[in-house]
Amino acid sequence: MASEYVFISDLHMGGDEQLTALDFEAELLDFLAELEERGGDVELIINGDAFGLWEYAEVTGTAKLDRVIEDHPRVFEQFRATGEVIDITLIPGNHDYDLACYTSYIDRLAAYNIVLEPVVSITREVDVDGGDEDETPRIWIEHGQQHDANNRMPDWGNPNALPVGYFVVQRIVAAAGRYSGRAKGDWLRDIQSVAPMEEIPRWLLSNYFYREMSPYLRAVVIPLLLFFNITLLYLFGTVLEVMGILPSAFFTDNPVIHALGIGEVVLEFIIAINIVIIAILLLLAIPLWLFRRDLRKTLDRFGVMLSGVRVGQGDEPFLRAARDVLEANSDVAVFVYGHTHRASLTRWGDRLVINTGTWLKKLQHVETWFSRLPGIYYPSFRLNYFRIFPEGDRIVVEYEKIETDQSLDLTRFQRLVARRPPAAEPIPARTVIDPNGTLETPDGAFERDSDTGADADPGSGKPFATVDGSDGDRADATDRTGEERD
């Protein structure tokens, strides 16, 4: 039993080609070195997805971890040094599920003073004062993939029993890593930060428009897009003039427009092109709608979803799992998980649910200042960790955010047109609970619909609890990029 536990997760070190790049290497080295310098009775617990082993397509078996170590020698040497002073424990997630399948990984990681526990979940005791010796408060720790239908391991420890998420990563993410060198810049490797994966087509379109498209073609397309709304307004105004509601001086015979000279000709040319585009879209709208409707019916008849595998399910399954664990184990005071890449702290009375977030780059879709231009995926980092330790007869949870000077990695044009994303909701720097207190889950949370058998309000983002445990907004530090990436 350590006197302090430190939690991080979802580092995702490793992958083909540019996927193995570690943007936060300097910060991770400093974090581990600080733990080494501070020392003490501390245990660092990495609760899953430390490595991106699924992101390898050309390397197989235990050689995947060797490749990670080869690509990041400084990190592993620091693991070795830190592990000589404090305990370091690692449990598998879904992206490094291989760790649960081959016992040889235990000795391989032990060489760097990392203790691998190849199980779904572990617990740790918190030595508070005056506690019941028969019921010492515990922390429940897992990665969380078992509550994700697309990433649940059907036969834990079997390397051939893989969920659909593995094949999605192999077909899409690993492939992007192999082709990342062909892109203009290294934007393609950020595919592992796109969340949820349904966003990938829109993310690809955005990066094609702002990074890959010929600048000459973009110079032609941008005015057409910017004037699209003006064209709609012009058409609407012209109809009002024909109906006699507005005088002709507003649109068709506007003296200000006539005073533009050659500018009037250019404006009329752009409006004419947009009118043609609108007419074509209107002509195609009905047959395309009928075709899509018929295709959906056909795919439904064969049991195939038109939108493919959907992974953006929100936090409800994980919070439901936390509630079940807390209700079944009165001695569990804190439930810790990761997987969704959304750091958060949820308080239910004197019980806490913690999501350890991710150290990967986060991408948040934002609209542009100019309508019709594709949205932009705004990059940011939220490098963080949680500390849990006893203080008298209480349990204290401290949240620390590591500052980074990583660049925004946006083109000049993207910086010009992008709106600023809303700031992430803060996580309390310090939260104190009484392990002898009660669990208070919000009324009606996670109930199942009695008629459909479905979860009530799935994916609605309905609030669960405030930081003081009352009903209302959940103390969620989500960067609202969507749902989980995996």
From TrEMBL:
SUPFAM superfamilies: Metallo-dependent phosphatases. One of its GO terms (biological process) is lipid A biosynthetic process. InterPro entries: Calcineurin-like_PHP, LpxH-like, Metallo-depent_PP-like. Pfam families: Metallophos (PF00149). Residues 6-146 form the Calcineurin-like phosphoesterase domain. The chain crosses the membrane at residues 216-236, 269-291. Residues 471-486 have a biased composition (Basic and acidic residues). Gene3D superfamilies: 3.60.21.10. PANTHER family: BLL8164 PROTEIN, UDP-2,3-DIACYLGLUCOSAMINE HYDROLASE-RELATED. This is Metallophosphoesterase.
